[in-house]
User: Fold this.
Amino acid sequence: MRGITPEVLWHAYETLDRSKVRGSGGRMLTDIVSLVRFAIHQQPELHPFQEDVKERFANWMAQQQSAGKHFTPDQLQWLEAIRDHIATSLALEMGDFDYTPFAQKGGLGKAYQVFGEQLQPLVDELNEVLAA
Assistant:
């Protein structure tokens, strides 16, 4: 089974039924989640995991706005960075704020300044909602 990579599997599914495959995936490790969910029929189409995360994030943002929660432009930049991290890593741990791209924004200390005591609950919620 050497040589079988997520990209090769993605292409194989695309060859079998192009109508059920959206986008090009298999290049990111998180696309394995999409491959497995498609293979066990948890999702009807095969598409990059990042698309799921972006869609879930948009839905979460709409729910927040409906509930009267509004974010500052600074908070939105952080939330989008958190979204992108989860899309490529499946989860965000508090220690991840010490690494790119968060370190360039001021790291964990700045994240606490931006979100206050809501940072940890927010990270927990986003991990649960976005990687579901």
